[in-house]
Amino acid sequence: MKTEILKITDRAPVDESKLKKAAEILRTGGLVAFPTETVYGLGGNALDAGASEKIYAAKGRPSDNPLIVHISCMEELPPLVKEIPESARKLAAAYWPGPMTLILPKSGLIPDTTSGGLPTVAVRMPSDPVANALIRTAGVPVAAPSANTSGRPSPTSAAHVIEDMNGRIEMIIDGGDVPVGVESTIVDLTGEVPVLLRPGAVTLSMLESVLGTVELDRVLTEPLAPDVHPKAPGMKYRHYAPKADMLLVEGPTEMVVRYITARAAKAAAEGKKVGIIATDETVDRYPHVDVRSIGRRSDERTVAHNLFAVLRDFDDDGADVIFSEVFSGDELGLAIMNRLTKAAGYHKIRIDENGNVEETGGAR
Ligand code: TXA
Ligand code: MG
């Protein structure tokens, strides 16, 4: 299949006449990749079981992993769900359009292929003007997972999407680099207490400020035992995975830099191609191997923004092993650490103030 690349540069407002063909592709069961504020999405008509099947095929993704349904305005929500709980109204009023996905009981309109056979549906209203105009013009809700091949880091630029999807789908809309860089926050509102299933740019404290109590899904805090089925089925896969073995190193900065430098030298001596993920604050302190800054430690938004691109760069370089610094785990840091921890397959080194080293995880 020949994939058409459509560049959209005028974003405020978007010239909707340019999106006519893309909208038509979606309406007639084809696939269009498009930018959102979080990552690029691989879109198809959410109400068309055939389109969902094409999405799974294009991604090489297991079909038990449900898709997020994207809408452009509140009026599009009621037909998709059985009910809209008060908690959903409040969160939508506070953070939609934006990087937040709500899990709600699904209506009969949503095919089982879209919801991965679950009785619930994930819904999100993206704030990106191209995404919003595309959904509105198409006139159908748009199912869209991240537009990467399954198992690869999510795409944050059109170049990433082209790498993974060229020749597999009808169209890719190039809207430039995305601003956020990590996927949306997912909140399950189908139980008694709201549960955070995947951390993102709408942070835990932002959710708590609207809802009061919010629980963290267990898979966010501990490695997944083989018998546990996470509520967000996607969380069980070793996602965002660079091809290299990855190791996170936590501790006082000085010691982390020294430890990574020593391990990197050892791995290089063994003939391995080594990558180091540093920060703007530390990047100059490592020896001249393949070391990249992932952003400013003092501004974690830059870290989230660069995270997947850096992982892809190391893939392209053919890195065998990657050592990475770690981040706070608070606010946006929770999303960053969730993605890094999964990329590393939970492999982590902790160094205390006395220089004692503890290594955990790592078995794949
Ligand atoms: O930011 C985003 O959310 C991006 C952009 C394109 O909107 N999309 C995205 O989709 O990240 P995807 O398919 O890569 O991740 C969707 C996650 C998966 O972990 C999936 O298991 C979970 O959402 N999910 C979808 N429907 C669900 C449901 N009904 N219940 C629980 N989890 C669900
Ligand atoms: Mg994904």
List keywords for this structure.
29% helix, 364 residues, binds magnesium ion, eleven-stranded mixed β-sheet, Rossmann fold, 10 helices, binds threonylcarbamoyladenylate, globular, single chain, alpha/beta, DHBP synthase
What does the model show?
- It is a single chain.
- This protein is of the alpha/beta class.
- The protein has two domains: 4-220, DHBP synthase (Alpha-Beta Complex); 245-360, Rossmann fold, CATH 3.40.50.11030.
- Helices cover 29% and strands 19% of the residues.
- The protein is built from ten helices and 17 strands.
- It has helices spanning 20-27, 49-59, 86-95, 112-115, 129-138, 158-165, 204-211, 253-269, 300-317, 332-343, and strands spanning 4-7, 32-34, 41-45, 68-70, 100-105, 120-124, 142-143, 171-174, 185-188, 195-198, 215-216, 245-250, 274-278, 290-293, 321-325, 348-351, 357-360.
- A hairpin with a 6-residue loop joins strand 9 (185-188) and strand 10.
- The structure holds threonylcarbamoyladenylate and magnesium ion (MG).
- Magnesium ion binds next to loops.
